[in-house]
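Researcher: We're reviewing a set of sequences before deciding which ones to prioritize for further study. For each one, I'd like a predicted 3D structure that I can look through quickly. This is Pyrroloquinoline-quinone synthase. If possible, include the structure in token form so it fits the rest of the review sheet.
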Amino acid sequence: MTATRDAFEARLRQIGAERYHDRHPFHHMLHGGQCTPDQVRAWVINRYYYQSRIPMKDAAFLSRVEDADLRRIWRSRIEDHDGTAENEGGIRRWLRLAQAVGLDPDYVASAQGVLPATRFAVDAYVAFVREKPLLEAVAASLTELFAPKIHAERIEGLLANYAFADDSSLAYFRNRLKEAPKDVAFGLKWVLDHADTTEKQDAAAAALTFKTDVLWSQLDALFSAYVTPARIPPGAWQPGEGLLAKGAA
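Model: Here's the predicted structure for Pyrroloquinoline-quinone synthase, in token form for your review sheet.
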């Protein structure tokens, strides 16, 4: 039997409560000031790969959308990350964070040091959105339902525990607190409107679960590679690589 709208929304929110990556040990370390400078840098490098692929994911989504109204609303997500004449965009803000933690932004943008598991997970998400039905593609984006809490905790934790943290370096997270709510309000309504059978509700829930797995697996990879005992795979960032010249930050 198809769940009511309220029951289905509660099901989606429960997925986040149980599976969102704010529960991961690496985030507890990061927000609690327990990460070394190199562990913070590894996080910044690998998370950049995810950030840089979000507008590519959204462009792939838009290429399949025939509804002009949906395209018009969705394309603001690309502008939020890539920027406009008036808005520098999330990718540039993330590179400012990279510079603040002592990394060369050009090195980070090259994606040279990204962990293989990070690359695999993020590329799988882009492929998922490119290939799956639109309902599942939109449902996968609903991890934004749970993002404001983690951004607020991150701002508070980084400011309290790390010398690099200030209004400039944390601008990405502050802006997402403003940008994400409008995206998720639209996305949630769209999914609730279109998941009108049991089969579609199950598919949407599975898509959201998949996305939480994408986010969780990135932190698993970081923890395995850079938290004791560190096991950095071939080709991934090695501490000391890609740093700014002294005095350049």
